[in-house]
Queue: 4 jobs
Job 1
Amino acid sequence: MVSPLMAFYSPDPAMAQILGQLVAQLEQDGRPGLGEQLSVTWLRYGASLIGAADAMGHETFWGQPVTGANWSGERPRYPASVVKLVYLVAAETWLQRQLIDDCPELRRALADMVRDSGNDATSLVLDLLTGTTSGPSLPPERYQAWCRQRQLVNGWLASLGWSETRAENACQKTWAEGPYGRERDFYGPGLENRNRLSTDFTARLLHAVVAGGIVSPPACRRMMDLLQRSLDPGERAADPENQVDGFLGAGLPQGSRLWSKAGWMSQARHDAAYLEVEGRMPMLLVVFSEGRVRAADATLLPQIASALLAA
């Protein structure tokens, strides 16, 4: 079995060369400075990843070789709404351990958090995971206790024993306008306690979910149901926040199958996706791009997906 402290994929020199050439070409085509603003983790599989851990057993699955490449894949960046994937897996973990109760309202919140990327739904989910609530600033003693509770998801990430979790931070809610009160206090004076994830970590987490290799196979199937995206043009047009247009899914041909969680705000455009395309190797791709210019670039992520799919 692969040690949990080892990288979960084997770097492929040919894939790394393709990825490096693609970044250079994208820079030359009118995106100066892109290499510094971009993180990518790209994995390819010889067969479908869906349910692989359930079929072969977790120990065998985690010992299977995976080929991949990255561009600044270990660099932590602000993940925007991609952090909701972490909270989804954490919620299923808490449910399995009977730390929270399963109920229709939780399931509604999880669906809205992932399918529609709802911030209000995310607020409820993180409240349930950590036993904390938003509100006015707190006196020092109560605030310190609140902060300890709010780190419960990070504690769970550390318990996974993955090398990719050492610099990750998933303890903040997502906002439309920004945090206030105790939430703003918790960000720190210079926002130093913002959420941060790397594309390598995000890829490993999504890899585990797709394969049924974390929490339990039934939990992973529930999560996959929430992550599945439609590439039908009519359905996408009816949903202006479909998490396909402007993201990796927009670079795929019709008939492709896609499971993803995107993140988009004024300073970031990200996506984490597993995809299957007829006649191509199944692929898992996580792309984080930072900066106001990158956030407004609705063609970057589709171009990356299309180019790597054709490679």
Note: Residues 1-6 have pLDDT under 50 and may be disordered.
Job 2
Amino acid sequence: MRYYLIIAIQGYCLYHIYKNRKPYYWYFVVFFVPVLGPIIYFLINIYNKRDAEKIQSELTSIIYPTKKIRDLEKKLEFSDTYSNRIELADAYVENGDMPNAIVNYKHTLSDIDQNDLYARQQLILCYFQLKDYVGVVEHAEKIRNKSKFRGSKQQFCYGLALKELGKVEAAEIQLKQIDRPYSNYNERLELAKFYLENNRNFEGVELLKEISSESQHMTKPNRRVYRSTINEVERLLKSM
């Protein structure tokens, strides 16, 4: 049990370093000094009394990933509210259980007093994970006129779903919405591939060149985050 606790703390610290863009040397401290390193980082960068309960809960979720779900299921049995069901659905997503997440998100849609935007946003992502492109399109078309939909990950999934369903022109309209300079690198790579797959070589190559040029101005942390994307861009350019 002690071994798993150490691994959990170490993993949490590494995630915290990445998420909060802490100095790079902390990776070495946490990773190469297995017990003392995470403790030092934890005490200096994370721990305070106000956050103690939250951190304990997150560590428990890492060690026992189904415990959070069981607790939320009991909470829902006691009080079947919109917020409790959304919380349970979110927990299923965190645990990779998309079918059960979908069941609970869809259940909230029957509550006409609640805004359905969040549930449908999540349903789009869940259906996309399951490669159920009909489901993606169904819920995307319910919210595609919302301001929060434009330029979102959900719109990108909608575009790819339309492509998979053979609706190429409609897909392009959606996918082009995420073509924004110095951002959305993964999505823009997919858009470039979309152009190439549909014999639009000029547009595809130009977009790849834009991404390649922008990558030269990335910060080191961003270059690490998008390393595989940049490598794929350069590979495609060399193959042209």
Note: The chain has three domains: 1-64, 65-170, 183-240.
Job 3
Amino acid sequence: MIRRALLLFFIASSLSAQEAEQPSPEVEPPMTYERLGKIIFALDPKAQPHGSGFALMVAGVPVLISTDVHADRMRAMVPIRSAKDLTDADMRRMMQANFDSALDARYAIADDTLWAAFIHPLSPLEKDQFISGVAQTVNIANTYGTLYSGGGAQFGGGDSFDLQRELIEELLKKGEEI
């Protein structure tokens, strides 16, 4: 009985020592309006506060960031075109893209405008998630009518994947110092 207790103690001590040796993953602080602003200004030093959010340019594309700290939500948006003349085929293709190729960004309609949007709870949002979400939003706006892609995962060959992934990588690099 004592042997068994010593063996269990040894195993437990060994496991605790192994756990202590492993570095704990770095935990990001909660996302706040102020922290989000620092990330945005790293992506575009000419960004402007805009109401409860920001306006910035990413790869020549205007991006609006809206926040609601009380609802703990944020939204990155790119206007694409008027939604008034969208056909059933357009709508179907966008819904297909929302399912498989738009990734974390989405096509959406509000105020008779077709938007590319990334919507996420604010406080648990991590820096790289935000940066990737903004890049995907710009990518689906830029590929509307062609690839309908967020730029991360695609099937087939060609140049599109590398061109779209390039924007995600460029923005992630800009955010490394934050």
Note: The chain is about 40% helix and 25% strand.
Job 4
Amino acid sequence: MKYFLLPLGCQMNQSDTERVRTVLQGMGFTQTENEEEATLLGIIACSVRQKGIDKVYSRIIKWNEMRGHKNCITFVSGCILPADRERFLKLFDLVFTMNDLPELPDMIRQYGIFIPTTDNRQQTTDNHPIINIQKPLVPLFSKKDKINPSANMDRFWVIEPDHISEFEAYIPIQNGCNKFCTYCAVPYTRGREVSRKSEDILEELKDLVQKDYKSITLLGQNVNSYGLDKKGEEINFAELLRRIGEYGDSVDKEFWVYFTSPHPRDMSDEVIEVISQYKCLGKQIHLPIQSGDNDMLQRMNRKHTLDDYRHIIHTIRRLLPEATIFTDIIVGFTGETEEEFENSRKAMEEFKYNMAYIAQYSVRPGAVASTWADDVPKETKKRRYHILTDELMKHSLVYNQSLVGKTLKVLVNGFDRNNAYLTGHTEGKIVIRFKSNNRNLIGKIVKVEVTSATPLSIEGNLIEE
């Protein structure tokens, strides 16, 4: 029996996919990249962007057409808005939230039965049993009056992930969001904030380190609000980082720990101080700004000002001068004037980001702003996008050029498009390539002397394997 799984969206969905893989493989399924040979077809969806949902619809149409010549079961889970969920109920065989993943084997068993391989009448050509579709199963969502995607997350987190990579891994530390930014649908797709037990997080991290994982990313919609939902029962984010740092100092293994995404409202000086104290805490901070204009930040319900954000950046520069800073920013949000956009451009100029993920605003059903006019023309959004992209390129190039002549540690993650080169990233997550065809270096941390730079990457020579 084979399964095909399509993950869409953010790193959290990628991490969720690894736990779905564990459950499916525990049932005896093996993964395939060929949809035609799969008995079980699944999508980990993302309702946060319309493009992600469009991909879901195009795939399920294709899969339902395949039913004319094969038996198969389809399912969808992940980050799903209520409106999308209702539509998916009519298109997929199974629709469930991630906290219901432990029930997936029972759902599949209810849907059909496995035909023994001794039954020569229904035996696959590869000698694997197939599923005989007998009756439709009422999708799990329709059994519940109210869906709470964050309820009982502990039973989901206890599933050991089947990691896609052998040297880079994600660890979910919380789920959901309480911030309700007006442009964002996450509180409606993932529910309210729920923190995972710190002892489980630390246990998972220690296991990864002992297995020689080199890059570990702590995941959450608002990682630095970790523990706030369990005051008095759980440690806060700074203390979680401290305990990770202390463990890193106690073992003779080199690894880097990152986190994404924090919210400026909960980003304390203590977090930055802790990062500066421990070698295993990666010197790279992803701090979304979304807009550089105070009026716009208020309309977005970000609940911080540009000066609040500026204080965090100054603290990073003071305590972590070697750190790179990444951000997220939106252009063309409802009502954005030329003056408000110019303030965002000025913020990009002031903070000199190493990387910025720039999004052209699109309406998401369920978010507060979905009832507001999407009144910035597409051409204006594109123009503003390109202006900010040019601003990013200018400052990232200056930084990357400052690295020329320096020797940096690099985590090698694969071959460049030119197989004569290996590619990887520095501790600050700057993309780098160097000439080598030694595949044994993949997954290792090596030393590279930087010889040249472009706006978004650098190049160098391997000096130590």
Note: The chain has 13 helices and 20 strands.
